[in-house]
Amino acid sequence: MAIDWFTVGAQILNFGLLVWLLKRFLYRPVLAAIDAREQKLVASLQQAQDTKAQAERELLEFRSQVAELQTKRDELMRQTHQQAQAERRRLVDEARAEAQRWSEHQHQVVAAELQKLENTFAKAVQKEVFAVSRKVMEELAAVSLETRVVEVFLERLRGIGEPEKGKLAMAWAKSEGPVVVRTTMGLTPQQKSAIAETLYDTFGVKLELTWESAPELVCGIELWAVGQKVAWNIGDRMTSLEKVAAEWMDAEKKGNR
Amino acid sequence: MRVSPDETVFWEYGVVKLNATLVYTWIVMAILVVGAYWATRRLSVDERRSRWQSALEIIVITTLGQIREIGLDRPEKYLGFLGTIFLFVAVSALLTVVPIYEPPTASLSTTVALALTVFVMIPGYGIKDRGLMGYLQSYVEPTVVMLPFNIIGEIARTIALAVRLFGNMMSGGMIVGVLLTLTPLFFPAIMTAFGLLTGVVQAYIFSVLAGVYIAAAVRSHS
Fold this sequence. Notes:
The complex is a heterodimer. Chain A is an alpha+beta fold. Chain A has 2 domains: about 50-140; about 145-255, no CATH class. Chain A is built from 5 helices and 4 strands, in the order αααβαβββα. In chain A, helix 1 packs across helix 5 (about 235-255) and helix 2 (about 145-160) packs parallel to helix 4 (about 190-205). By secondary structure, chain B is mainly alpha-helical. Chain B has one domain (about 5-220). In chain B, a hairpin with a 2-residue loop joins strand 1 (about 10-15) and strand 2 (about 15-20). Chain B is globular and about 60 Å long. The termini of chain B are far apart. Classes of the chains: A alpha+beta, B mainly alpha. At the A-B interface, helix 1 of A face strand 2, helix 1, helix 2, helix 3 and helix 4 of B.
């Protein structure tokens, strides 16, 4: 059980060599691998933290953008709503004005049509009255309507009051042109001379007369000079008749309601 | 009865001799170095790694933890020396399951060599850490009167280290040899298994004691 000092020395060398070899092939590589893994884990953790921080920043930014977009959208919606309201009001106003214009136009058309109808009706009535009167007068009095119209006209001339007569005489005396006599029917020479004589007798003035045909009078006679007129025609009588007829129709409408 | 593998000499020339202690030491060294090289060929730094690498990392990390628990602040500095003591002694003991193998640590020459290495490394680490004067000053603390006692203590604990390891290793083989003659079937197997345990425990004790001595040398000034 003695100590072999050669073996002791050799074992010291062996042990030293073993320490070096194990450091070289075991401890250093394993420690390096552990360190590398730790660094990698630390780097991964750091990266994860950075990524998380970045994600949180982007999330905040995203939320901010969403809020901003929400505000902008609300503002745009409000503006669009206001514009739509204004546009609606404008279109409604336009449509209302157009309807008003159309309605007025229609009223005008109807009124014109009515006026036309009234005129047509008046003329038809005048003609009918004229025809009936003529027939009645011919059958009962053996006098033509034209003759009677002239007679009535002449009576009217004779019946003009003195103030009126003086005014007309003064006006006709100042007249440079002839006095126009307008009739719906052709006058006979006797009737023309009767009119001329009656004018002279009534006004005391020798007038220069011109004879014209006026079918729009339906039945009647007019005397024109310097804005002064003396007339008798069935149209004037028909105007009165129209007034009476209109009043009667209004009364009938009120009664029907 | 042959007590030490030193007595098995294969070749001899003068004082130079090739005995079983050296041959088995080389076998243990070859196993450790080749195993370490083979296991660390392709170390992975990723989360996925081989079982061998995991086992190596567990051994290294556990050893580092033990060294740190002893009180050495930077265990990586002492890992090479203390870890090699542990692995060498443990593998020497574990290989006793192989027939005809004799642990080199059952040779007093080997344990003396290991103890001398520790005896040298203690002041080595102390001087490296504290400087020569600082370390030498620890021998005259708390008073100069303690100088001889401290020197005797140094030598005594070195001898104690060597003899403790030698005794345990040698006794394991001796017990198995004695029991083989008495009850050849049952007890030798149990005692061999028990020897494996005591061998690993001795490896742990030897390396921990070496660490404690180094820690005392390094720390005594702080």
